[in-house]
Amino acid sequence: MKILINLLLFSFTLIGLSEVHHWWLLNDGILVHSIFQGSRIEIDPKLLFAERRSKIAINPSDASCWVTNSFQGQVTKYNVDNKKPLILKGFAAPTSLALSSDKIWAIDSALNRIVTASLDGKIIKTIPIQSAKSMVVLDGDQWVLTWRGLQKLTDDGLSPAILTKVTHVTTANQHIWCLDQKGLIYTFRSQVDLNRAKFSIPDAVDIVSTDDGGAWLLRHEMVIRLTDKLIPVGEITGVKNPKRLIRQPTDHSVWLIDTESDRSVRLPRLNDPSDVKLIAAIGWNQVRNTKRVKTIIATDLKWNLFSRNNKREQPSIAQSTEDSKVKIRTETNPPTVKTRLLLSKPIASKTKDLKPIAVPISPNETFDHIPVFPNGGLVSVELYNSLSQKRIQNTDQMLGRRFIWNFEGETYTLLVGLSLGVYNTYSNRDRLKWIEMVVEGSGIGQPIAEKLNQVAQENNWSRERLANFVISFVQSLPYTADDVATGYDEFKMYAFETLVAGGGDCEDTVILAASLLRSLSYDLILLNPKGHLALGVSGQFSGAHYEYNNLQYFYSETTGKGWEIGNIPEAYRSIPVKLYQVPLLTP
User: Fold this and answer.
1) What is the CB neighbour count within 10 angstroms for residue 133?
2) Taking a C-beta distance cutoff of 8 angstroms, is the pair 210, 248 a contact?
3) Burial (0-12, 13-18, 19+ Cβ within 10 Å), 381
4) 374 and 313 both lie in a single domain
5) Distance CA 110, CA 417 (A)
6) Which residues contact 17 (CB under 8 A, 6 or more apart)?
7) 120 with 75, same domain?
8) How far apart are CA 297 and CA 267, in angstroms?
9) Taking the model in full, what pTM does it have?
10) How confident is the model at residue 513 (pLDDT cuts 50, 70, 90)?
11) Which domain holds residue 416?
12) Which of 154, 164, 440, 507 is the most exposed, having the fewest neighbouring CB atoms within 10 Å of its CB?
Protein backbone atom coordinates (compact mmCIF):
# COMPACT_ATOMS: atom_id res chain seq x y z
CA MET A 1 0.00 0.00 0.00
CA LYS A 2 1.23 3.45 -0.80
CA ILE A 3 1.93 5.15 2.49
CA LEU A 4 1.04 8.81 2.61
CA ILE A 5 2.91 10.86 5.15
CA ASN A 6 1.51 13.31 7.60
CA LEU A 7 4.82 15.15 7.54
CA LEU A 8 5.27 16.56 10.97
CA LEU A 9 8.93 17.40 10.50
CA PHE A 10 11.17 18.97 13.04
CA SER A 11 14.93 19.10 13.29
CA PHE A 12 17.72 19.73 15.73
CA THR A 13 21.28 20.82 15.04
CA LEU A 14 23.81 19.59 17.55
CA ILE A 15 26.26 22.34 18.41
CA GLY A 16 29.75 21.43 17.29
CA LEU A 17 28.56 18.54 15.12
CA SER A 18 27.31 18.56 11.55
CA GLU A 19 24.29 16.40 12.13
CA VAL A 20 20.60 17.19 12.31
CA HIS A 21 17.93 15.07 13.96
CA HIS A 22 14.47 14.86 12.37
CA TRP A 23 11.21 13.31 13.54
CA TRP A 24 8.69 12.17 10.93
CA LEU A 25 5.16 11.02 11.67
CA LEU A 26 3.97 8.70 8.90
CA ASN A 27 0.35 8.60 7.90
CA ASP A 28 -0.11 5.12 9.35
CA GLY A 29 1.07 6.23 12.78
CA ILE A 30 4.74 5.24 12.58
CA LEU A 31 7.16 7.75 14.11
CA VAL A 32 10.53 7.81 12.35
CA HIS A 33 13.76 9.36 13.65
CA SER A 34 16.34 10.27 11.02
CA ILE A 35 19.84 11.75 11.16
CA PHE A 36 21.17 14.12 8.51
CA GLN A 37 24.91 14.63 8.12
CA GLY A 38 26.42 16.42 5.16
CA SER A 39 24.42 15.17 2.19
CA ARG A 40 23.51 11.86 3.81
CA ILE A 41 20.32 11.06 5.66
CA GLU A 42 20.30 7.98 7.86
CA ILE A 43 17.01 6.52 9.04
CA ASP A 44 16.95 5.11 12.55
CA PRO A 45 15.91 1.45 12.06
CA LYS A 46 13.93 1.56 15.30
CA LEU A 47 10.46 2.62 14.16
CA LEU A 48 8.23 3.94 16.94
CA PHE A 49 4.47 3.42 17.09
CA ALA A 50 2.23 6.43 17.54
CA GLU A 51 -1.11 7.13 15.85
CA ARG A 52 -2.06 8.46 12.44
CA ARG A 53 -3.31 11.70 13.99
CA SER A 54 -0.89 11.98 16.86
CA LYS A 55 0.51 15.42 17.59
CA ILE A 56 4.16 16.00 18.40
CA ALA A 57 6.19 18.75 20.05
CA ILE A 58 9.97 19.08 19.99
CA ASN A 59 12.19 20.38 22.78
CA PRO A 60 14.97 22.34 21.02
CA SER A 61 17.40 21.88 23.91
CA ASP A 62 17.78 18.11 23.46
CA ALA A 63 15.75 17.26 20.30
CA SER A 64 13.40 15.05 22.30
CA CYS A 65 10.02 14.37 20.74
CA TRP A 66 6.77 14.43 22.74
CA VAL A 67 3.92 12.44 21.16
CA THR A 68 0.23 12.12 22.02
CA ASN A 69 -1.47 8.73 22.15
CA SER A 70 -5.20 9.19 22.49
CA PHE A 71 -6.17 5.56 22.81
CA GLN A 72 -3.56 4.65 25.37
CA GLY A 73 -4.37 7.85 27.25
CA GLN A 74 -0.77 8.99 27.47
CA VAL A 75 1.90 11.40 26.24
CA THR A 76 5.33 9.91 25.52
CA LYS A 77 8.72 11.60 25.32
CA TYR A 78 11.25 9.96 22.98
CA ASN A 79 14.97 10.79 22.95
CA VAL A 80 17.36 10.73 19.99
CA ASP A 81 19.72 8.41 21.89
CA ASN A 82 16.99 5.75 22.26
CA LYS A 83 16.97 5.95 26.03
CA LYS A 84 13.92 4.61 27.82
CA PRO A 85 10.99 6.91 26.94
CA LEU A 86 9.23 9.00 29.57
CA ILE A 87 5.48 8.31 29.72
CA LEU A 88 2.84 10.65 31.18
CA LYS A 89 -0.33 8.69 31.96
CA GLY A 90 -3.78 9.52 33.30
CA PHE A 91 -5.25 11.13 30.19
CA ALA A 92 -8.49 10.13 28.52
CA ALA A 93 -7.66 11.34 25.00
CA PRO A 94 -4.74 13.77 24.60
CA THR A 95 -5.01 15.37 21.16
CA SER A 96 -2.69 18.40 21.11
CA LEU A 97 0.55 19.63 22.70
CA ALA A 98 2.34 22.90 23.40
CA LEU A 99 5.88 23.19 24.75
CA SER A 100 7.89 25.89 26.51
CA SER A 101 11.41 25.83 27.93
CA ASP A 102 10.26 24.22 31.18
CA LYS A 103 6.66 22.97 30.74
CA ILE A 104 4.43 20.98 28.46
CA TRP A 105 0.68 21.45 27.99
CA ALA A 106 -1.56 18.64 26.77
CA ILE A 107 -5.17 19.08 25.66
CA ASP A 108 -7.25 16.17 26.98
CA SER A 109 -10.26 16.36 24.67
CA ALA A 110 -12.41 13.60 26.14
CA LEU A 111 -12.31 15.09 29.65
CA ASN A 112 -12.43 18.72 28.45
CA ARG A 113 -9.29 19.83 30.23
CA ILE A 114 -5.72 21.03 29.74
CA VAL A 115 -2.98 19.32 31.74
CA THR A 116 0.26 21.16 32.55
CA ALA A 117 3.36 19.12 33.42
CA SER A 118 7.06 19.70 33.99
CA LEU A 119 9.51 18.29 31.47
CA ASP A 120 10.43 15.53 33.91
CA GLY A 121 6.86 14.25 33.82
CA LYS A 122 5.34 15.71 37.01
CA ILE A 123 1.77 16.97 36.71
CA ILE A 124 1.56 20.61 37.81
CA LYS A 125 -2.02 21.62 37.15
CA THR A 126 -5.26 20.48 35.52
CA ILE A 127 -7.50 23.19 34.04
CA PRO A 128 -11.11 22.52 32.93
CA ILE A 129 -11.49 23.80 29.35
CA GLN A 130 -14.39 23.03 27.03
CA SER A 131 -13.72 22.04 23.39
CA ALA A 132 -10.06 23.03 23.17
CA LYS A 133 -8.54 22.25 19.76
CA SER A 134 -4.94 23.47 20.01
CA MET A 135 -2.79 25.97 21.88
CA VAL A 136 0.39 28.00 21.56
CA VAL A 137 2.72 29.53 24.14
CA LEU A 138 4.57 32.85 23.76
CA ASP A 139 6.41 34.85 26.45
CA GLY A 140 4.72 32.88 29.20
CA ASP A 141 1.21 33.49 27.84
CA GLN A 142 -0.92 30.55 26.77
CA TRP A 143 -3.43 30.97 23.94
CA VAL A 144 -6.07 28.30 23.34
CA LEU A 145 -8.07 27.76 20.16
CA THR A 146 -11.62 26.60 20.95
CA TRP A 147 -14.87 26.60 18.99
CA ARG A 148 -15.40 30.14 20.33
CA GLY A 149 -12.14 31.35 18.78
CA LEU A 150 -8.68 32.26 20.07
CA GLN A 151 -8.73 32.79 23.85
CA LYS A 152 -6.05 33.64 26.40
CA LEU A 153 -5.64 31.24 29.30
CA THR A 154 -5.57 33.02 32.66
CA ASP A 155 -5.67 31.96 36.30
CA ASP A 156 -9.45 32.37 36.16
CA GLY A 157 -9.86 30.30 33.00
CA LEU A 158 -10.27 31.45 29.41
CA SER A 159 -10.67 35.11 28.57
CA PRO A 160 -13.22 36.08 25.88
CA ALA A 161 -12.14 35.31 22.32
CA ILE A 162 -10.17 38.05 20.55
CA LEU A 163 -10.65 36.33 17.17
CA THR A 164 -13.38 33.98 15.96
CA LYS A 165 -13.51 31.35 13.19
CA VAL A 166 -9.75 30.81 13.38
CA THR A 167 -8.53 27.74 11.48
CA HIS A 168 -4.75 27.98 12.01
CA VAL A 169 -2.66 29.41 14.84
CA THR A 170 1.15 29.32 14.88
CA THR A 171 3.99 30.94 16.77
CA ALA A 172 7.78 31.18 16.73
CA ASN A 173 9.95 33.37 18.95
CA GLN A 174 8.33 36.74 18.37
CA HIS A 175 4.75 36.71 17.12
CA ILE A 176 1.55 34.68 16.99
CA TRP A 177 -0.03 34.36 13.55
CA CYS A 178 -3.64 33.37 12.80
CA LEU A 179 -5.55 32.46 9.66
CA ASP A 180 -9.36 32.36 9.67
CA GLN A 181 -12.05 30.76 7.51
CA LYS A 182 -12.30 33.81 5.23
CA GLY A 183 -8.57 33.94 4.55
CA LEU A 184 -7.98 36.92 6.84
CA ILE A 185 -4.47 37.00 8.31
CA TYR A 186 -3.67 38.33 11.79
CA THR A 187 -0.52 38.71 13.83
CA PHE A 188 0.24 39.96 17.34
CA ARG A 189 2.73 39.70 20.15
CA SER A 190 0.35 40.73 22.91
CA GLN A 191 -3.39 41.20 22.98
CA VAL A 192 -3.13 44.97 22.55
CA ASP A 193 -1.21 45.00 19.25
CA LEU A 194 -3.39 42.78 17.08
CA ASN A 195 -2.90 43.62 13.39
CA ARG A 196 -4.60 42.35 10.25
CA ALA A 197 -3.25 42.16 6.73
CA LYS A 198 -4.68 44.62 4.20
CA PHE A 199 -5.63 41.67 2.00
CA SER A 200 -7.28 38.30 2.43
CA ILE A 201 -6.45 34.99 0.74
CA PRO A 202 -9.54 32.73 0.90
CA ASP A 203 -7.71 29.82 -0.76
CA ALA A 204 -4.89 29.79 1.82
CA VAL A 205 -4.41 26.31 3.25
CA ASP A 206 -1.69 26.79 5.87
CA ILE A 207 0.44 29.36 7.66
CA VAL A 208 3.67 28.95 9.64
CA SER A 209 5.53 31.61 11.62
CA THR A 210 9.26 32.30 11.28
CA ASP A 211 11.94 33.21 13.80
CA ASP A 212 12.16 36.81 12.52
CA GLY A 213 8.51 37.50 13.35
CA GLY A 214 7.24 36.91 9.81
CA ALA A 215 5.40 33.98 8.28
CA TRP A 216 5.06 31.70 5.26
CA LEU A 217 1.58 31.40 3.75
CA LEU A 218 0.64 28.38 1.61
CA ARG A 219 -1.74 28.56 -1.34
CA HIS A 220 -2.59 25.80 -3.79
CA GLU A 221 -0.08 27.00 -6.38
CA MET A 222 2.46 29.07 -4.45
CA VAL A 223 4.02 29.92 -1.10
CA ILE A 224 4.15 33.59 -0.03
CA ARG A 225 6.64 35.12 2.42
CA LEU A 226 5.31 37.81 4.77
CA THR A 227 7.30 40.12 7.05
CA ASP A 228 6.36 40.89 10.64
CA LYS A 229 4.58 43.97 9.20
CA LEU A 230 2.30 41.72 7.08
CA ILE A 231 4.02 42.78 3.85
CA PRO A 232 4.55 40.19 1.05
CA VAL A 233 8.25 40.19 0.11
CA GLY A 234 8.58 37.08 -2.03
CA GLU A 235 6.93 33.95 -3.37
CA ILE A 236 7.75 30.43 -4.47
CA THR A 237 5.99 29.37 -7.65
CA GLY A 238 5.63 26.03 -9.39
CA VAL A 239 4.07 24.36 -6.35
CA LYS A 240 2.02 21.24 -7.14
CA ASN A 241 -0.21 19.27 -4.77
CA PRO A 242 1.01 21.03 -1.60
CA LYS A 243 0.08 19.44 1.71
CA ARG A 244 1.35 21.73 4.45
CA LEU A 245 4.14 23.86 5.83
CA ILE A 246 6.35 22.69 8.67
CA ARG A 247 8.53 24.83 10.91
CA GLN A 248 11.52 23.17 12.52
CA PRO A 249 11.67 24.94 15.88
CA THR A 250 15.29 24.23 16.69
CA ASP A 251 16.98 25.58 13.58
CA HIS A 252 13.99 27.77 12.59
CA SER A 253 13.85 26.48 9.03
CA VAL A 254 10.50 26.05 7.26
CA TRP A 255 9.69 23.18 4.90
CA LEU A 256 7.09 22.75 2.19
CA ILE A 257 5.53 19.29 1.96
CA ASP A 258 4.28 18.52 -1.56
CA THR A 259 4.05 15.91 -4.36
CA GLU A 260 1.59 13.75 -2.41
CA SER A 261 3.71 14.03 0.75
CA ASP A 262 6.71 12.37 -0.90
CA ARG A 263 8.90 15.48 -0.90
CA SER A 264 9.99 18.03 1.69
CA VAL A 265 11.52 21.28 0.39
CA ARG A 266 13.46 23.67 2.60
CA LEU A 267 12.21 27.21 2.04
CA PRO A 268 14.70 30.09 1.70
CA ARG A 269 15.44 32.60 4.41
CA LEU A 270 14.18 36.15 4.06
CA ASN A 271 17.29 37.62 2.45
CA ASP A 272 18.24 34.69 0.23
CA PRO A 273 18.65 35.79 -3.42
CA SER A 274 16.20 34.76 -6.13
CA ASP A 275 18.67 32.30 -7.65
CA VAL A 276 19.08 30.33 -4.42
CA LYS A 277 18.88 26.55 -4.85
CA LEU A 278 16.06 24.90 -2.92
CA ILE A 279 17.16 21.69 -1.18
CA ALA A 280 14.62 18.86 -1.10
CA ALA A 281 14.37 15.34 0.29
CA ILE A 282 12.33 12.78 -1.66
CA GLY A 283 11.18 9.23 -1.02
CA TRP A 284 9.24 9.69 2.21
CA ASN A 285 6.32 7.57 0.99
CA GLN A 286 8.62 4.53 0.84
CA VAL A 287 10.79 5.23 3.88
CA ARG A 288 9.10 2.60 6.03
CA ASN A 289 10.40 -0.10 3.69
CA THR A 290 13.55 1.47 2.24
CA LYS A 291 14.84 3.19 5.41
CA ARG A 292 16.26 5.99 3.27
CA VAL A 293 15.45 9.22 1.43
CA LYS A 294 17.39 11.12 -1.23
CA THR A 295 18.42 14.79 -1.26
CA ILE A 296 18.05 16.72 -4.53
CA ILE A 297 17.65 20.27 -5.83
CA ALA A 298 14.01 21.23 -6.42
CA THR A 299 14.50 22.62 -9.93
CA ASP A 300 10.75 22.87 -10.57
CA LEU A 301 10.30 25.53 -7.87
CA LYS A 302 11.41 29.15 -8.16
CA TRP A 303 11.98 31.66 -5.35
CA ASN A 304 11.04 35.19 -6.47
CA LEU A 305 12.23 37.93 -4.13
CA PHE A 306 10.23 41.10 -4.80
CA SER A 307 12.05 44.33 -5.51
CA ARG A 308 11.27 47.01 -2.97
CA ASN A 309 8.55 49.45 -4.00
CA ASN A 310 7.79 47.43 -7.14
CA LYS A 311 4.09 46.71 -6.82
CA ARG A 312 3.94 44.92 -10.18
CA GLU A 313 5.90 42.04 -8.66
CA GLN A 314 3.52 41.60 -5.74
CA PRO A 315 1.55 38.32 -5.69
CA SER A 316 -2.05 38.19 -6.81
CA ILE A 317 -4.07 38.78 -3.64
CA ALA A 318 -7.69 37.72 -3.64
CA GLN A 319 -9.21 40.87 -2.13
CA SER A 320 -8.32 43.86 -0.01
CA THR A 321 -9.69 44.46 3.47
CA GLU A 322 -10.20 47.42 5.75
CA ASP A 323 -7.52 49.14 7.83
CA SER A 324 -4.95 46.68 9.10
CA LYS A 325 -5.14 47.94 12.70
CA VAL A 326 -7.79 45.82 14.37
CA LYS A 327 -9.99 47.01 17.18
CA ILE A 328 -10.27 44.16 19.64
CA ARG A 329 -13.84 43.09 20.25
CA THR A 330 -14.32 40.32 22.73
CA GLU A 331 -17.22 37.91 22.61
CA THR A 332 -19.28 38.54 25.73
CA ASN A 333 -22.13 36.17 24.95
CA PRO A 334 -20.65 33.22 23.08
CA PRO A 335 -23.05 30.79 21.41
CA THR A 336 -23.84 27.49 23.04
CA VAL A 337 -23.71 24.14 21.31
CA LYS A 338 -27.08 22.40 21.22
CA THR A 339 -27.01 18.75 22.15
CA ARG A 340 -30.73 17.91 22.27
CA LEU A 341 -33.00 17.14 19.35
CA LEU A 342 -34.49 20.08 17.50
CA LEU A 343 -38.08 20.81 18.53
CA SER A 344 -38.47 24.04 16.57
CA LYS A 345 -39.81 24.49 13.05
CA PRO A 346 -37.77 23.06 10.16
CA ILE A 347 -34.73 25.01 9.03
CA ALA A 348 -35.35 27.02 5.90
CA SER A 349 -33.28 25.55 3.11
CA LYS A 350 -32.90 25.93 -0.63
CA THR A 351 -31.79 22.34 -1.05
CA LYS A 352 -35.22 21.05 -2.00
CA ASP A 353 -35.33 23.54 -4.89
CA LEU A 354 -32.24 22.02 -6.48
CA LYS A 355 -32.09 19.14 -8.90
CA PRO A 356 -29.61 16.75 -7.31
CA ILE A 357 -27.61 14.50 -9.60
CA ALA A 358 -28.37 10.88 -8.73
CA VAL A 359 -25.53 8.41 -9.26
CA PRO A 360 -26.98 4.88 -9.51
CA ILE A 361 -25.20 1.78 -8.27
CA SER A 362 -23.45 -0.04 -11.08
CA PRO A 363 -24.82 -3.57 -11.70
CA ASN A 364 -21.32 -5.04 -11.38
CA GLU A 365 -20.86 -3.69 -7.84
CA THR A 366 -21.85 -6.93 -6.16
CA PHE A 367 -19.16 -6.69 -3.46
CA ASP A 368 -18.46 -10.43 -3.83
CA HIS A 369 -14.71 -9.79 -3.69
CA ILE A 370 -14.82 -8.36 -0.17
CA PRO A 371 -13.32 -10.71 2.44
CA VAL A 372 -15.52 -11.64 5.38
CA PHE A 373 -14.13 -11.22 8.89
CA PRO A 374 -15.97 -12.48 11.99
CA ASN A 375 -17.87 -9.44 13.33
CA GLY A 376 -15.96 -7.30 10.85
CA GLY A 377 -12.75 -7.73 12.84
CA LEU A 378 -14.30 -6.69 16.16
CA VAL A 379 -12.96 -8.82 19.03
CA SER A 380 -14.97 -7.23 21.84
CA VAL A 381 -17.33 -4.31 22.47
CA GLU A 382 -18.64 -2.75 25.69
CA LEU A 383 -20.85 0.32 26.15
CA TYR A 384 -21.35 2.19 29.44
CA ASN A 385 -23.86 4.93 30.19
CA SER A 386 -21.22 6.79 32.22
CA LEU A 387 -17.61 7.93 32.17
CA SER A 388 -15.85 4.59 32.59
CA GLN A 389 -12.17 4.42 33.55
CA LYS A 390 -11.87 0.93 32.11
CA ARG A 391 -9.59 0.38 29.11
CA ILE A 392 -8.94 -2.48 26.72
CA GLN A 393 -5.19 -2.99 26.56
CA ASN A 394 -3.29 -3.59 23.35
CA THR A 395 -1.95 -7.10 22.81
CA ASP A 396 -0.10 -8.90 20.03
CA GLN A 397 -3.47 -9.78 18.49
CA MET A 398 -5.71 -6.85 19.45
CA LEU A 399 -5.84 -3.05 19.49
CA GLY A 400 -7.88 -1.55 22.33
CA ARG A 401 -9.80 1.67 21.74
CA ARG A 402 -11.82 3.84 24.16
CA PHE A 403 -14.31 6.51 23.07
CA ILE A 404 -16.07 8.98 25.36
CA TRP A 405 -18.85 11.36 24.28
CA ASN A 406 -21.89 13.28 25.52
CA PHE A 407 -25.44 13.10 24.22
CA GLU A 408 -28.36 15.02 25.69
CA GLY A 409 -26.45 15.71 28.89
CA GLU A 410 -25.39 12.09 29.46
CA THR A 411 -21.86 10.68 29.15
CA TYR A 412 -21.19 7.41 27.32
CA THR A 413 -18.06 5.25 27.06
CA LEU A 414 -17.53 2.74 24.25
CA LEU A 415 -14.71 0.18 24.54
CA VAL A 416 -13.77 -1.87 21.48
CA GLY A 417 -11.13 -4.50 20.82
CA LEU A 418 -10.01 -4.59 17.18
CA SER A 419 -8.16 -7.44 15.51
CA LEU A 420 -4.58 -6.47 14.66
CA GLY A 421 -4.54 -9.01 11.83
CA VAL A 422 -7.66 -7.49 10.28
CA TYR A 423 -6.14 -4.02 10.63
CA ASN A 424 -3.01 -5.12 8.79
CA THR A 425 -5.20 -6.58 6.05
CA TYR A 426 -7.11 -3.33 5.62
CA SER A 427 -3.89 -1.30 5.67
CA ASN A 428 -2.67 -3.17 2.59
CA ARG A 429 -5.95 -3.16 0.68
CA ASP A 430 -6.80 -0.96 -2.25
CA ARG A 431 -9.26 1.86 -1.64
CA LEU A 432 -12.75 1.07 -2.98
CA LYS A 433 -15.61 3.35 -3.97
CA TRP A 434 -17.54 5.09 -1.20
CA ILE A 435 -20.59 2.85 -1.45
CA GLU A 436 -18.49 -0.30 -1.47
CA MET A 437 -16.67 0.85 1.65
CA VAL A 438 -19.98 1.51 3.42
CA VAL A 439 -21.18 -2.00 2.60
CA GLU A 440 -17.83 -3.39 3.74
CA GLY A 441 -18.06 -1.37 6.96
CA SER A 442 -21.40 -2.88 7.89
CA GLY A 443 -19.49 -5.94 9.09
CA ILE A 444 -17.96 -4.09 12.02
CA GLY A 445 -20.82 -1.59 12.16
CA GLN A 446 -23.46 -4.14 13.09
CA PRO A 447 -22.18 -5.33 16.51
CA ILE A 448 -21.39 -1.75 17.56
CA ALA A 449 -24.76 -0.50 16.30
CA GLU A 450 -26.50 -3.21 18.30
CA LYS A 451 -24.94 -1.86 21.49
CA LEU A 452 -26.06 1.67 20.62
CA ASN A 453 -29.53 0.38 19.83
CA GLN A 454 -29.75 -1.28 23.26
CA VAL A 455 -29.44 2.16 24.86
CA ALA A 456 -32.26 3.43 22.64
CA GLN A 457 -34.51 0.51 23.56
CA GLU A 458 -33.82 0.86 27.28
CA ASN A 459 -34.77 4.55 27.10
CA ASN A 460 -37.67 4.08 24.67
CA TRP A 461 -36.11 6.39 22.08
CA SER A 462 -37.57 7.04 18.65
CA ARG A 463 -35.70 6.03 15.50
CA GLU A 464 -34.85 9.68 14.90
CA ARG A 465 -33.36 10.05 18.37
CA LEU A 466 -31.30 6.89 17.89
CA ALA A 467 -29.94 8.19 14.58
CA ASN A 468 -28.79 11.41 16.25
CA PHE A 469 -27.20 9.32 19.02
CA VAL A 470 -25.17 7.42 16.42
CA ILE A 471 -24.16 10.64 14.64
CA SER A 472 -23.09 12.23 17.94
CA PHE A 473 -20.75 9.29 18.56
CA VAL A 474 -19.05 9.69 15.18
CA GLN A 475 -18.75 13.47 15.57
CA SER A 476 -17.07 13.04 18.96
CA LEU A 477 -14.18 10.80 17.86
CA PRO A 478 -11.06 12.55 19.18
CA TYR A 479 -9.41 13.03 15.79
CA THR A 480 -12.52 13.84 13.76
CA ALA A 481 -12.21 17.15 11.91
CA ASP A 482 -14.11 19.83 13.82
CA ASP A 483 -14.56 22.16 10.85
CA VAL A 484 -17.63 21.35 8.74
CA ALA A 485 -15.86 22.93 5.76
CA THR A 486 -13.17 20.24 5.92
CA GLY A 487 -12.79 18.43 2.62
CA TYR A 488 -11.37 14.99 1.95
CA ASP A 489 -7.98 13.79 0.80
CA GLU A 490 -6.92 11.01 -1.54
CA PHE A 491 -6.61 8.44 1.24
CA LYS A 492 -10.07 7.43 2.41
CA MET A 493 -10.30 4.91 5.24
CA TYR A 494 -12.45 1.87 5.86
CA ALA A 495 -14.78 2.08 8.88
CA PHE A 496 -12.46 -0.32 10.71
CA GLU A 497 -9.46 1.97 10.07
CA THR A 498 -11.37 5.06 11.21
CA LEU A 499 -12.06 3.38 14.55
CA VAL A 500 -8.38 2.52 14.88
CA ALA A 501 -7.34 6.07 13.92
CA GLY A 502 -9.97 7.63 16.16
CA GLY A 503 -11.54 9.81 13.49
CA GLY A 504 -10.86 11.25 10.08
CA ASP A 505 -12.04 13.74 7.51
CA CYS A 506 -15.54 14.05 6.08
CA GLU A 507 -15.45 10.95 3.87
CA ASP A 508 -13.91 8.73 6.59
CA THR A 509 -16.57 9.70 9.14
CA VAL A 510 -19.41 9.45 6.63
CA ILE A 511 -18.32 5.91 5.75
CA LEU A 512 -18.29 4.99 9.46
CA ALA A 513 -21.62 6.67 10.24
CA ALA A 514 -23.28 5.08 7.20
CA SER A 515 -21.88 1.67 8.18
CA LEU A 516 -23.47 2.00 11.63
CA LEU A 517 -26.82 3.38 10.47
CA ARG A 518 -27.07 0.90 7.59
CA SER A 519 -26.69 -1.89 10.14
CA LEU A 520 -29.77 -0.47 11.89
CA SER A 521 -31.74 -0.58 8.59
CA TYR A 522 -31.85 3.17 7.95
CA ASP A 523 -32.43 4.28 4.36
CA LEU A 524 -29.38 6.36 3.40
CA ILE A 525 -27.76 8.32 0.60
CA LEU A 526 -24.32 9.90 0.39
CA LEU A 527 -24.37 13.64 -0.34
CA ASN A 528 -21.45 14.95 -2.36
CA PRO A 529 -21.28 18.72 -2.79
CA LYS A 530 -18.03 19.66 -4.50
CA GLY A 531 -15.09 18.94 -2.20
CA HIS A 532 -17.18 17.56 0.67
CA LEU A 533 -19.11 14.47 1.72
CA ALA A 534 -22.11 14.24 4.04
CA LEU A 535 -24.89 11.77 4.79
CA GLY A 536 -28.59 11.84 3.98
CA VAL A 537 -30.90 9.98 6.38
CA SER A 538 -34.55 9.21 5.66
CA GLY A 539 -36.97 9.51 8.57
CA GLN A 540 -39.29 11.78 10.53
CA PHE A 541 -36.75 14.56 10.93
CA SER A 542 -37.08 18.28 10.30
CA GLY A 543 -34.82 20.70 8.50
CA ALA A 544 -32.72 20.63 5.35
CA HIS A 545 -33.37 17.67 3.08
CA TYR A 546 -33.14 16.36 -0.48
CA GLU A 547 -35.90 14.51 -2.31
CA TYR A 548 -35.05 11.32 -4.16
CA ASN A 549 -37.35 8.47 -5.25
CA ASN A 550 -40.27 10.13 -3.42
CA LEU A 551 -38.39 10.09 -0.12
CA GLN A 552 -36.89 12.91 1.90
CA TYR A 553 -33.26 12.46 2.95
CA PHE A 554 -32.21 14.86 5.69
CA TYR A 555 -28.75 16.37 5.68
CA SER A 556 -26.41 14.94 8.32
CA GLU A 557 -22.96 16.41 9.05
CA THR A 558 -20.43 13.95 10.49
CA THR A 559 -17.64 16.49 11.11
CA GLY A 560 -17.92 19.06 13.87
CA LYS A 561 -19.90 18.66 17.08
CA GLY A 562 -23.52 19.56 17.78
CA TRP A 563 -24.76 19.18 14.19
CA GLU A 564 -28.02 17.26 14.41
CA ILE A 565 -29.72 15.60 11.48
CA GLY A 566 -31.47 18.30 9.44
CA ASN A 567 -28.94 21.03 10.27
CA ILE A 568 -26.92 22.10 7.24
CA PRO A 569 -23.88 24.43 7.19
CA GLU A 570 -24.43 27.67 5.32
CA ALA A 571 -21.71 26.79 2.81
CA TYR A 572 -23.75 23.85 1.45
CA ARG A 573 -27.26 25.33 1.44
CA SER A 574 -27.36 26.54 -2.13
CA ILE A 575 -24.98 24.37 -4.12
CA PRO A 576 -25.78 21.25 -6.16
CA VAL A 577 -24.85 17.83 -4.87
CA LYS A 578 -24.42 14.33 -6.24
CA LEU A 579 -26.50 11.63 -4.54
CA TYR A 580 -25.20 8.10 -4.08
CA GLN A 581 -27.81 5.57 -2.98
CA VAL A 582 -26.64 3.24 -0.21
CA PRO A 583 -28.01 -0.30 -0.74
CA LEU A 584 -30.27 -1.46 2.07
CA LEU A 585 -29.00 -4.16 4.38
CA THR A 586 -30.45 -7.52 3.36
CA PRO A 587 -31.29 -10.04 6.12
Assistant:
1) 17
2) no
3) middle
4) no
5) 19
6) none
7) yes
8) 12
9) 0.68
10) very high
11) 351-581
12) 154
